[in-house]
Amino acid sequence: MRSISSIVFFRFIIIFLAQIIVFNNILIFGLSADIYMIFLLIFPQNINKSLYYFLIFLYGIFLDSFSNSFGIITFSLLISCYLRPYILDFSFGNFDMRKVGKVRDYLINTTIYQKLTYISLVIFCHNFVLYFVEIFSIYKLDLILRNATISSLISITLILIILSLFYYKNER
User: Nearest CA to 118 among 93, 150, 156, 88?
Assistant: First the structure.
């Protein structure tokens, strides 16, 4: 358990620093890429649920404090964290989180369509909630959908590149 917690902590620090130092300063179409979602995407499943929500909450608070987003990232991360088991079940079929501790097994041993479905749904749900809370107007639903779609495409592209460089190296 000690090695799992140190790996999770190391991932947390690296992804957090990369987001704050590099990716918050790069704007594509006026939107920043959200690579911090990698932490949520590959987070181990064999952890206590309340600890899981608490760690995601802390992660969101740290990101909010450096991104000046006033709790919006934390809220959308917690919603994505809540929806993640349902998205895993939808994307990979019979996903039983009690039996499988690592999402990595599913990400490596499945088709690209299943991986893309999982990553895309989690990121789009996160971005939709993020921009809906930020704009907070049903009359600007087209702007919310446009920003969520563009930001999701940018984030999905960068996350797939990062995961293929660092995470899927054993798959080849």
Answer: 88
The domain segmentation of the chain, as residue ranges, is: 2-166
Helical (H) or strand (E) element with 145: helix 141-166
Q: Residues near 62 by Cβ (< 8 Å), separated by ≥ 6?
A: 16
Tokens of 104: 């990595």
Query: Nearest Cα to 63, choosing from 52, 75, 79, 53?
Result: 75
- Pairwise CA distance, residues 30 & 61, whole Å: 23
134 pLDDT above the threshold of 70: yes
Whole-number Å distance between alpha carbons of 132 and 138: 8
Give percent helix, percent strand, percent coil of the chain, each to the nearest 5.
Answer: 75, 0, 25
| pLDDT (tens digit per residue) in 56-93 | 999 899 989 988 888 999 999 999 999 998 898 888 77
- Helix axis angle for 141-166 and 112-135, nearest 10°, is 140
